[in-house]
Each structure stands twice: as C-alpha cells, then as structure tokens.
Write a structure and sequence with these properties.
Largest sheet of chain B: 7 strands, mixed
CATH superfamily of the largest domain in chain B: Aldehyde oxidase/xanthine dehydrogenase, molybdopterin binding domain
CATH topology of the largest domain in chain B: Aldehyde Oxidoreductase, domain 4
Structural class of chain A: alpha+beta
Oligomer: heterodimer
Strand content of chain B: 15-25%
CATH class of the largest domain in chain A: Alpha Beta
Distance between the termini of chain B: 56 Å
Number of domains of chain B: 4
Number of domains of chain A: 2
Number of helices of chain A: 6
CATH topology of the largest domain in chain A: Ubiquitin-like (UB roll)
Largest sheet of chain A: 5 strands, mixed
Helix content of chain A: 25-40%
CATH architecture of the largest domain in chain B: 2-Layer Sandwich
Radius of gyration of chain A: 16 Å
CATH superfamily of the largest domain in chain A: Beta-grasp domain
Bound molecules: FE2/S2 (inorganic) cluster
Strand order of the largest sheet of chain A: 2-1-5-3-4
Strand content of chain A: 5-15%
Largest interface: A-B, 59 and 63 residues
Chain lengths: 163, 787
C-alpha cells in the first residue's frame, strides 16, 4: 500500500532531522501534522490565503500548505512547538495568554508565528507595521484587537525581559 | 432566575432543608476515568474494552466502572446529580455537560458557575461535554442560550451536590449542618477548626439522588468566582499545539478521505446527480484504498491525507444538474415572488387606520440581506469508526445529540449504536459543515472498514455549508403631527433559518445523495422573524412574515439567524424616520422607548461615544471633506436580542471616500447589558467578535453563484475583515448581578449593519439599504443622491 519514496528526503524541524516518507511535492503542512505529529500549524485553506499553517523557514514566515516538502530540505523549519511548550512558554505565547487573545483559537498558532517573525526583524513594531505584517492572516472570530495587543505586549517582553 | 436564594450568612453556614434527606448510596459507579477517555485521542470503539482501568487509589468507583458496559449504562438522564457531576477521592470535580464549547469560552464560564456553587477551586474542575454516552443532552448549543439556559441547570445540580456533601460532613463530624462552612472543597466546623473533612474524603460513593430543585443556590452578592475574568481553561492547549481540535486527533489505524461533490447546495440536496465516474486511474494512484460511490455520493479513501487530496482532484466526474440556480441579480425579486406561507405575527392597534387618519408624513423603504457564509477559518472535519455492531464518531457539531438518529440509518445502525463525541472545531457561528462531514466520514468508514478522518476542502466548506439566507424586508412608517411614530408596518420575506439534522437522515447531505436518496425533512419555520418585532412604543403595528418555501441555496442558522437582517431593517428605518422627523436619532429612539434597561444601554453608548445631538446628515454635521477627499459620519443603532433578551447599542464612526466608494469603520462604541456578567473579559472578547464580524457582514460578505454553482469558494472571493479594517472598539458593560445572565454571543452583532448604514448616511446623505456596502454599492447610492 505504502509506496517507498524513490529518494529519501530529510528535513530539519525544530532543530531535529527527520526522514520524510511523503513524496517530494507533498505540502510541508501534511508532513508536519501527520508524520511528525506537530499540530500547531493548521489546515485552513490549502491555498496560501489565510495563514493558519504559518511556520518559519530560516526565521521567515511561510505558508506550509503550499510549500512542497522538498523545498525546505537543507533549511531550518521552526513550528510553534519549536518556539515554546506548555511547560516552557515562548514570550509570544505568554503574551497571547495574558491578553486572552483567542476565541476559537484556530488561527492563533499562525498568528503567533507571524508575530514572532515580525518581532525578530522589528522588535518594537507600530500598530501599522503589525497590520502590514498580518495582511495575510485571517481570523473569523474577530480577535484582531487582542492579537495586536498581544504582539505589542510580546514586544515589551522581548525587549525588556528574558524568555 | 426562579431558583431560591439564601442570604449571605446562611450560605456560609447552612443549606436549609437538607436535614435527614440523605438516602442510601447504593451504586458504585464512577465515570471520571471513563469520561476522560472521551477527551483522549484514541477512539474507544464500541465493542472493544475502553481503557486500562486506573489503579490510582482514592477514586470513587472501581475499575469495573470504567468498562465499556459502564460507559454504555452511564446515567445521562439529567434527572440525577450523578448525571451532571462526579467528585473523586482527590476532591477533583468532573462536570458532565450537554453544551459544547464553540470557541466562546462557554466551558470556562459554566465551570465558574459550578465551582461557585460547590465552593471548590477552578483548578479542581474538569468538564466533559457533548458525548452522547456520557453527558446529558441539553439540545443544540446555539442561539447564545447556553449560559442563559444550561448555566442555571448546572448551578442547581452543583447546589444539590453541595447539600449532599454537607449532609455527609455533618454526619461524619457530628456537627450540625448549620455550623459547617466550605472553603476550597474543605468542610470545617465553624466553632471547632479541628473538625474538618474534605470533599474528596466525603466522596465515598455516588451522590445517588435525584435533582429536587429544592437546594438553594447562592445569592449573587456572595459570588467569588462568577463575575471574575477567569482565564480560559482551553487556551493553553490551543496556544501550544496541544490536541485542542478534532482536526488534531489521531486514531489508531486511521486513514484519510476526501469527498467529491459539485459546488452547490440547494434546498433539496446537492442540486445535481452523478453523470459519470471514471476512477480507473485514481484506483492505481499510490496509497488509494478505495473510491466509494453510493448513488451520487463519491469519496476517496487513501492511506495518507495528501494522497486522498490528489486522488480527489484526479477523479473524472461529470454531474447532471437537476436544479439550476437562479440569477443572483434577480434574487430579491425571486424571494418576493416564490411560494410562501404567510403569517401575521404582530397586530397592535390599527395600522391601516393610523396611516389613513393619524399620519402626517409617511415613509416606505425596502432592505435586503445577501446570502452570507459561516466561513469557519478551517474546513469541517470528522473522524468516524464504523463497525458492524456500532460506531464512534468525533464531531464538531453544535447538535451532537441529534446525530445518532440522523446518521444511524445511513450506515445501517440503530441510533443507540452510534456514539457521537464532541470535539471542538474552528468557530462555526452556526450550522456549518460540521454535521454533514460527520455523516460523510461515517459512510466512508463503513465502506472501508477502518477509522476514517475526513476534512473537507476550503472550496467544499464554502460550497456545501448551509447558508445564512438572503432576505427582503419591507417597511412602512407614519409620523403624527408631533413627529412621533404612530404606525409601523413590517413585512419580511425569509426562509426558515434551520435545516439542522434534527435526527433526520434526509437532512444530511450524504443522506440526500445515496441510493435511494432520503428526502429532507422540514423542521418547521424558524429564525427568520427573529428581531422583526421591535421594542419601541408604537401604538399601531403589524408584522407579516412570508416564509419562503424554495430558497435558492439551502438556508440554516448563521449567527443571530434573522436577527441581524431584521435589526438592520428596523434600525435603519428608525433612523430614516428620525430624519423625516428632523430629530436626533438617539433622542428619537429614547422618545419611543419605555424599557429603562434599553434606555440606559443607549445612553451609556451615546455618552461614551461623545454623541452630539443633531439630526443625521452632512447638512447638520457640517462635515467637510478631509484633504484626501474622505468624509466622516457617525451612526447609532440598538437591538434587544430576540426582542426579549440581552441589550446592545452601538455607535459606529466611519470615513467614506466618495471617489472610490470605500467605507472604513474607525471607532465602534458598544453599550451592553446581558444581566449578570459571569466573565467580563470573556464577554468583551465576544463583543469584539460581534463588532468585527458585524462590520464584515455590513461591508464585505456576500456569497455569489452562477447558474450552476456557488462561485465564492475561497478567501479571495468571499471577503471577511482583515487587520487593516479593524476599528478602535470601546465597550460599556452594564453589569446587573441581580438579573439572570443572558447569552452574549449574538446580541451585539444585531445592530451593527444598521449603525454602519446610518453612519454612511450621516457622512454622505446616501442611504444604503442593500448589503453588503461594497464600494460599488456605495458609489451607486452616492450617485443617486447627487443625481
Ligand atoms: S492553510 Fe495555508 S494559508 Fe491557509
Ligand atoms: S480566534 Fe477563531 S479564527 Fe481567530
């Protein structure tokens, strides 16, 4: 049933190397969720339109639903699980929890990945810069205001305190 | 609330009326572990042992209580304390609830209400909900009714549980119940602090008692947890990649599926039957397990998700259309003309007489509401494991209790053989694809004999979800010589707003496609007249509802149902009447409003917004275009949800660009009264959501279709609010702790479209009556004004 891939593909996710069973053109998102059991990145559209699947490739936010897994070989993929865990939260997770920035929450992991990447390049973003960075992230529940507040809070955390 | 209350003093010391009521505790069945099973990732299929029995000491019940048989025989009647609550030897409380978490924070608020009555810490309580074998049915989780309706039920169960525990403590400690107090699950004698016993120590057996309705619930002024902004109990898992959603579950042996359907959904089903299917190539694709065809239902099952996606894309299918869709441009004429059941639901005074004899000036206007989508951020998903002797189905349905009877017949099982376990999905905002996908997954699992995970595609969700229906509202109003309203005649053309499963296989999309197809069953006419009756004091009124029988697209519940469209019509027309009277729109409303709570909500919103009394319109505001040509305006609107529940008033500030027709909301102020506030922060979160979704529905959202299919199938064709569109939001919460808590997930969305329309009028003098207020429609309205 399961065809063996012709060439073994290896990707690095959250600092660990993994051999991939999926064929090279498979979107990275399916590999993360179904092979590696990393569920923070979500399937929202599969079309690169909503941002729920956002992860980092060498620190840059990418839409894992439209990036073939073969394209990320040789790069560093980071998922939300690689930023922080329930026991050891990343500042951006702490900020989102402090602001209670979630309704259904389905979009939020993607929001945090977008936010974390923004804060790397722009440690003290203006609201306008946040709006710009989040242009490709959708939230149906209308949690936007809290998301922006959480990013601002995280900016304070990142600048002022340790993780 | 009708439940009796006790004074603060007696609450701490005594629960009256409980002496001598304790009965023999006979059943040794505790379901805590069995219940937790339901939240775990591994499905325990019916017919196999459910779990390894816990050997942890101190739990009430025995390992035997965790067998499949015990799950099957758990009391879910709702008549007993045990059907709602259990406490284990550690004092940990499990709440068994029939209302599910839809992303609103409901489970946090309900837990607050229970721990308040029990006097235990938040952290000691877990909540299990929406498992048809473990939790009592509390119907569909909808209509913002959960806090309002389910909250008091759980409070009462907790109050009765507390009484049982105190009775046991009294016997154990040899202290009268009057002289006991409880703090964090520890019972202590008031006059002898050495006499103490924990709830865990008292939990030697089940409660074993019926709900009497007699146990007093706490007085609101003694609340310590209710009314606090307790953080969401579900947030950590959601924000750390936990198995927070159905979509994240993995089940042993699970395979993946996609379904293939045309992109349309009419009142009678999919609107097309299968023409031809060529699956030869697909069957040879890597990982493909089977291509299932049953009547016009087609699905592919593969080992891996991406294989199922590719196989579905590769399938060669043609469809024979049975029900062409009407021309979208003619839709509102069609709604007026289609067969309808007519019903006069309000008649006060003599409307025609008042128009004829008392009316000095009159006005007529028609408003339209477009088809709009639930547009959940993730497509619906389900995991089904269907065996010969039973099925376990994970579903994000709002109405899990209605699914066994709806799905059972489709997969050849009796309803009792179908267990539905609720697991959260992305915010649904009503009857989206969550029910249908569950039936689809069940059919596919039965066909391949393995657990199947099925997530619809983005396009599938947009095409196949039932729609918030298009509506037409005709209004006529008359002013007397003093400029007060004497006559109000409201006519609404609407289909029903519910085609939920309702235990009917014909209401499942797959049920309508299989061979032989099952006819959809009507659940009656509902929701289309929500908020059509207004709250104003108007002597002569009439409300006529035309229930459309053949809507173009299958309608069902979308946030507030008809409430949003009807509040839009009522509150925009109210503004038009105020203009006709030359009055300030807030003063004009207050003049016609007798309900003091409504008056206060309106006043608070207006004051917070810095409302300046004057008639609406650029000639009164003196607004001059900014350097970029934009003009600003401000609109007001009010609604009381379902005309009888929570109150919301909104003030919306907009800028309008007359050159390109774009409208931007810059600031929204909300006044809100939903009685007792259980969780202020959670409430503000819900109101933010109402405001933002309401703005989207005012300005952007519209389902489009051509003659054969829905054409708004992704986020580039169905537009919702983005970060660039978000206004400043300010909320005035009015807490009324002495009043019953009312649902808050929908009230504040109802006045949003009207407030935007009224603000655009204030800025430009152009009336927008047909949503959404896209640049094209705004330009058209502006052209009509400037002639
Ligand atoms: S799921 Fe990747 S952008 Fe929507
Ligand atoms: S919180 Fe539900 S989609 Fe953003």
């Amino acid at each position: 049933m399961q065809s063996t891939p012709a060439t073994a593909l290896s990707i690095t996710v959250n600092g660990q190397s993994h051999d991939v069973e999926a064929t090279p053109e498979t979107p990275l998102l399916y590999v993360l969720r179904n092979e590696l059991g990393l569920h923070a990145a979500k399937f929202g559209c599969g079309l690169g339109q909503c941002g729920t699947c956002t992860v980092h490739q060498d620190g840059q936010p990418i839409r894992s639903c439209v990036v073939p897994v073969s394209e990320v070989a040789g790069t560093e993929i980071t998922t939300l699980e690689g930023l922080g865990t329930a026991d050891d939260l990343h500042p951006i997770q702490r900020a989102f929890i402090a602001e209670q920035a979630a309704q259904c929450g389905y979009c939020i992991p993607g929001m945090m990945m977008t936010g974390a990447a923004l804060l790397q390049t722009t440690p003290e973003p203006t609201d306008a810069e946040i709006t710009e960075a989040f242009a490709g992230n959708l939230c149906r529940c209308g949690t936007h205001t809290r998301i922006v507040r959480a990013i601002q809070r995280a900016a304070g955390n990142v600048a002022g305190t340790t993780a | 609330m009708t439940a009796p209350t006790v004074s603060p003093i007696s609450r701490r010391t005594l629960l009256k009326g409980s002496g001598g009521l304790v009965i023999g505790f006979s059943l040794a069945a505790a379901f805590r572990n069995a219940g937790l099973l339901a939240q775990e990732a591994t499905v325990a299929p019916i017919g196999t042992p459910a779990a390894t029995p816990s050997t942890e000491p101190g739990l009430i019940g025995t390992p035997a209580a965790q067998t499949q048989e015990d799950i099957q025989t758990r009391d879910v009647s709702g008549d007993t304390i045990d059907s709602w609550l259990s406490i284990d030897g550690q004092g940990l409380v499990t709440i068994y609830c029939g209302k599910v978490e839809l992303g609103t924070g409901l489970w946090t608020s309900l837990t607050q209400m229970v721990v308040e009555e029990l006097d235990v810490p938040m952290a000691s309580a877990t909540l299990i909900a929406g498992d048809t074998l473990l939790t009592p049915s509390q119907g569909t989780t909808a209509g913002s009714k959960s806090i309002q309706v389910a909250g008091p039920v759980l409070q009462q169960a907790a109050a009765e549980a507390r009484m049982v525990l105190l009775t046991r403590a009294s016997e154990r400690l040899g202290v009268p119940m009057d002289d006991l107090q409880v703090e964090d699950g520890v019972v202590t004698a008031l006059f002898d602090a050495t006499k103490t016993v924990t709830y865990g120590e008292l939990a030697t057996d089940t409660f074993g008692m019926e709900i009497t309705g007699d146990a007093p619930v706490k007085a609101f002024d003694t609340y310590r947890v209710v009314g606090q902004s307790i953080p969401r109990i579900d947030i950590l898992s959601k924000l750390t990649g936990g198995e927070a959603y159905l979509h994240d579950l993995t089940v042993e042996g699970m395979v993946h599926a996609r379904v293939v359907r045309p992109y349309v959904r009419t009142m009678d089903g999919i609107g097309a039957t299968l023409g031809s299917l060529d699956d030869t190539a697909v069957r040879a694709m890597p990982g493909v397990i089977d291509v299932i065809q049953n009547g016009s239902f087609i699905g592919v099952v593969a080992e891996r998700e991406e294989q199922a996606v590719r196989a579905a894309d590769a399938l060669q299918v043609t469809w024979a259309q049975t029900a062409p869709l009407p021309d979208l441009g003619q839709i509102y004429d069609l709604i007026r003309e289609m067969p309808a059941e007519e019903e006069e639901t309000v008649r006060t005074g003599d409307v025609e007489g008042a128009f004829a004899s008392q009316t000095a000036r009159m006005l007529e206007a028609t408003y339209t509401q477009p088809y709009q989508a639930h547009a959940s951020i993730g497509p619906s998903c389900s995991i089904a494991d269907v065996r010969a002797d039973g099925a376990t189905i994970y579903s994000s349905s709002q109405g899990v209790y209605a699914l066994p009877a709806a799905i059972g017949p489709i997969i050849g099982l009796a309803p009792e053989q179908v267990r539905i376990i609720y697991k959260e999905g992305p915010g649904c905002y009503g009857h989206n694809g969550a029910d249908d996908v569950s039936a689809d997954a069940a059919v596919l699992s039965k066909a391949v004999g393995r657990p199947v995970r099925l997530q619809w595609s983005r396009e599938g969700e947009f095409a196949w979800e039932p729609k918030g229906p298009a509506m037409v509202m005709d209004l006529r109003g008359g002013l007397d010589n003093e400029g007060n309203i004497v006559a109000w005649d409201y006519t609404v053309f609407t289909p029903t707003h519910s085609t939920r499963p309702g235990g009917q296989p014909g209401n499942m999309l797959v049920g309508q496609q299989i061979d032989p197809p099952v006819e959809p069953a009507t659940l009656g006419q509902t929701g289309g007249d929500r908020n059509a009756p207004n709250n104003y004091s108007i002597p002569n009124q009439r409300l006529t509802v035309h229930w459309n029988e053949t809507p173009a697209l299958r309608p069902s519940a979308l946030r507030s149902l008809g409430g949003l469209a009807n509040a839009t019509a009522n509150e925009t027309f109210m503004d038009e009447m105020a203009s006709l009277a030359g009055a300030d729109p807030v003063e004009f409303r207050l003049r016609h409003m007798a309900d003091p709570r409504a008056v206060e909500v309106m006043r608070r919103a207006a004051t917070r917004a810095g409302w300046m009394a004057r008639p609406s319109g650029p000639q009164f505001s003196g607004v001059v275009p900014a350097a970029d040509g934009t003009v600003t305006g401000r609109g007001f609107a009010f609604a009381r949800y379902e005309t009888e529940f929570a109150y919301a008033a909104v003030v919306v500030d907009v800028t309008v660009n007359p050159a390109d027709g774009t409208v931007r909301a810059t600031r929204v102020v909300v006044g809100h009264d939903c009685g007792l506030i259980v969780n202020p922060d959670g409430l503000q979160n819900q109101i933010d959501g109402c405001v933002i979704q309401g703005l989207g529905r005012a300005l952007k959202e519209e389902i489009t279709f051509d003659g054969s299919a829905v054409t708004s199938l992704d986020w580039s064709t169905y537009h919702i609010m983005g970060f660039a569109d978000i206004p400043l939001i300010e909320i005035e919460l009015i807490d009324r702790p002495d009043q019953p808590p009312l649902g808050a997930g929908e009230p504040a969305i109802c006045p949003m479209i009207a407030a935007v329309s009224n603000a655009i009028f204030d800025a430009t003098g152009a009336r927008l009556r047909n949503g959404p207020f896209t640049p094209a429609r705004v330009l058209e309205a502006l052209a009509a004004v400037t002639g």
